[in-house]
Amino acid sequence: MSHINKKRPRATVIVETGEGILLVRMRADLFMLPGGGIERGEQPICAAIRELKEETGLDSCAAAFLFEHESRHHQHHVFHILARGTPEPDSEIVELGVYREATSHEIYASHVQIIGRFLGGSSRIVMPAQAGSHEVRR
């Protein structure tokens, strides 16, 4: 009998800001990276861009696939996105935060692992300053 992967596919987004890596929090949940479920027939990168816009109002101006990460309930498709605009909680998001070394936010363990993989790697999107992504760029 073959084992079918029952984990839900999730587009997970890393956006670097001047303060740290952008985090979101839903009602009574821990903080997490922006993102969400990938709809049937939707490409993971499209889901990442859509979810970031829905949750924070940010417009994506460049995106790169980083890696897949398996957690207890999800198969994360992780993207690094450069975005423009000022992030504001939207949709089901009640609060925004940032991850940095001395962060005091309670964050889902799988998202801490994803951030650790990202920070330990060398894949970064670099865009010239005139590209217009000021508010959330490093």
TrEMBL record:
UniProt keyword terms in alphabetical order: Hydrolase
Keyword set includes Cell inner membrane: no
SUPFAM superfamilies attached to this UniProt entry: Nudix
Taxonomic path: Bacteria, Pseudomonadati, Pseudomonadota, Betaproteobacteria, Burkholderiales
Molecular function terms from GO: hydrolase activity
Family affiliation: Belongs to the Nudix hydrolase family.
Species whose genome carries this gene: Sphaerotilus sulfidivorans
Co-factor requirement: Mg(2+)
Signal sequence bounds: none
The keyword Protein biosynthesis appears for this protein: no
Domain of life: Bacteria
Protein's recorded name: 8-oxo-dGTP pyrophosphatase MutT (NUDIX family)
Domain Nudix hydrolase intervals: 5-121
